[in-house]
Amino acid sequence: MRLDTIIQNGILVTAAETIEADLGIIGEKIAAVGQNLPKDGAKAIDAKGKYVLPGGIDAHTHMEFPFMAATSADDFETGTTASACGGITTIIDFALQKPGETLEQTVKNWRRKADGKVVIDYGLHLIIRDLNDRILDEMKEMIGQGITSFKLFMTYKKEGLLLDDGGIFRVMEEAAKYNGLIGLHCENNDLIECLMSRYLKQGRKEPKYFARSKPPVVEGEAIHRAIRLAEYSGCPMYVVHMSTQMGSETVCEAQRSHLPIYAETCPHYLVFTDEVYERPDGANYVMSPPIKKKEDQDALWHGLAKGEIKTIGSDHCCFTTEQKKLGKDDFTKIPNGVAGTELIMPVLYHFGVAKNRISINQMVQASSYNPARLFGLYPKKGTLAVGSDADLVIFDPEKEVRLTRENLHSKIDHSIYDSFTVKGYPVMTFSRGRLVQENGRFIGEKGHGKYQARKPFKESEARQMLAPALA
Q: What is the pairing mode between strands 421-431 and 392-402?
């Protein structure tokens, strides 16, 4: 067996073990893992003193996403370039159904935008906003085609995204029949609209009142309600971008009752507190749900450490400073979203592993293994095993990077992380065996990424996250 590439002397990290070994690649696949692999003309890369990690899976991105009178600034090329430079080798993007559109049409439209642009692999979730019997019937077909997860909104009524509880229940029932997974944006729309209206009538239009319109109870109540719907329908459920202690405790309680309830959080909730909304550039930090208080941040780290929060997704939906100015006189018109796909791994390592909040294995679980299990990509992705895709990251625990706009790769004109210097950063990213990022420089190719059809959700697979396999 002649290898194309050997990564030598590295510290290989999977969800459950850490070993010093070499890793060999042939074509697009991992072909060997072991000690002193023979070179035989293979390209050798010395990873001494560095971690070799499975490529990250960002299961929550919004590239070229139309929202609130704007479209997110990163397209599928610039957005996935940022992903690759942060050690992400697969994204799962949200395809938004237009009113009156079939799910099949939605998928075709989204793939038309992505294929030929993506620099790393990608899959799709479907956002259902216009529900009828025909759409319900289509869900079986979509799952059969490898789109096995669907997102529903419990808020954004004015934007035409909200699905009422009856609609959510009907979608959950249908997903349960065919092993689909339902992701939910959990916020109480009526309470949000009540509070927003009150602040506007009082003339309080600054970004900080956006955050105050969405206190923790907005998320906590909605998560509780959604879990009850999921329990009654028999459907597994995934809470996207969880931001509160109340939400985390509610999810944990459901898990203790052996319900198939899973949750993600995002890098920004692990780094910032709601003090950012007092800043002159507070609009740049407006996302939904908004950033909460220190006790919420602490609860999220605790949930990650305990394995109650399974994944980190970026919710990458970024808007330029100019786009954010759409809400300069009314916080309800600020496009919601921030950048983050490039920063999942640096944030988890610097603020988590290096501060002994989580282990390096837990970092791999949250950023790669668990998303692969939940979303039907394992073992093709999410681990370092013979036969898996050669999606991997060489991560230097000593490399320091200031998270300025100049050092990052998103198309937007600012970085909300500008004041932070992190220690620990990806120095090489391989996508299916191809080196696409080296020392912060993108060297991949537009269109290299491939669409990934995914396996249906299996509770037996997902439960492996509680006791990860050794490979």
A: antiparallel
Q: Is the pLDDT of residue 464 over 70?
A: no
Report d(CA 43, CA 295) in Å as an integer.
49
Helices (H) and strands (E) in the chain, counts: 15, 19
Assess contact for 10 and 52: CB atoms under 8 A: yes
Q: Are 204 and 228 in contact (CB under 8 A)?
A: no
C-alpha span between 400 and 339 (Å, rounded): 20
Phi and psi torsions of 96, nearest 5°: -95, 120
In this structure, are residues 183 and 240 in contact, taking their beta carbons and an 8 Å threshold? Answer: yes
Cα 296 from Cα 282, distance rounded (Å) = 19
Comparing CA positions, the residue from 398, 400, 425 lying closest to residue 53 is: 425
**In the structure, what pLDDT confidence band is assigned to residue 469 with cuts at 50, 70 and 90?**
very low
Q: Which domain, by its residues, includes 68?
A: 54-382+454-464
> Region 262-291: what's the mean pLDDT?
97
Question: How many CB atoms are located within 10 Å of the residue 124 CB?
Answer: 25
Largest CA distance in the chain: 74
Residue-level length of the chain: 471
Give a yes or no: residue 448 inside a domain: no
In a domain, 393, yes or no: no
Task: Give the DSSP H/E element, type plus range, for residue 246.
Answer: helix 245-256
Query: Which tokens is 334 given?
Result: 């600020």
Return the bridge partners of 238, or none.
Answer: 183, 262
Burial class (CB in 10 A: 0-12, 13-18, 19+), 454: buried
Q: Are 210 and 331 in contact, with CB atoms under 8 Å apart? A: yes
Q: For residue 205, which phi and psi values (nearest 5 degrees)?
A: -120, 5
**Separation CA 392–CA 304 (nearest Å):** 22
Report which of 343, 215, 335, 244 is spatially closest to residue 284, judged by C-alpha positions. Answer: 335
How many domains is the chain partitioned into structurally? 1
Assess if residue 65 is contained within a domain. Answer: yes
Q: Please give the Cα distance from 165 to 131 (Å, whole number).
A: 12
Residue range 88-143, pLDDT digits in tens: 999 999 999 999 999 999 999 999 999 999 999 999 999 999 999 999 999 999 99
Return the closest-CA partner of residue 390 out of 23, 21, 18. 23
| Alpha-carbon span 122 to 107, nearest angstrom | 13
Does residue 156 sit within a domain?
Answer: yes
Q: Identify the CATH number of the domain in which residue 155 sits.
A: 3.20.20.140
Asked if 170 contacts 228 with a C-beta cutoff of 8 angstroms, the reply is no
The vertex-290 CA angle with 288 and 295, nearest 5°, equals 140
